[in-house]
Amino acid sequence: MSRCPICQLEIPARMLLCLTHWSLVPFPLREPVQYFARTRKGGPSHRKACRQAIDAVEKILEARQKEIEAKAAPKPVRETTLPYRDD
After folding, report:
1. What is the CA radius of gyration of the chain?
2. Which residues, including other chains, have CB under 8 Å from residue 17's CB and lie 6 or more apart?
3. What is the separation, in whole angstroms, between the first and last Cα of the chain?
4. What was the pLDDT predicted at 74?
């Protein structure tokens, strides 16, 4: 058993990431990870492909977090004045 490098969830040793985070890996980066896992597991090209996939997921999660924080940030309060009325 190993752990997902992003969430530390316990996963089978054959997996790079948990399923939740693997689903966030862009498809063009999945192919090299899978190909090099079959042909050159542990080699420099495999490690590089894995690092690129992990970096891509971290970047996606960071962008999502910033988006959530931006939505949750309080909006500036605009001072309003009532119209003057002299009766």
Report:
1. 23
2. 4, 5, 6, 11, 25, 53, 54, 57
3. 80
4. 76
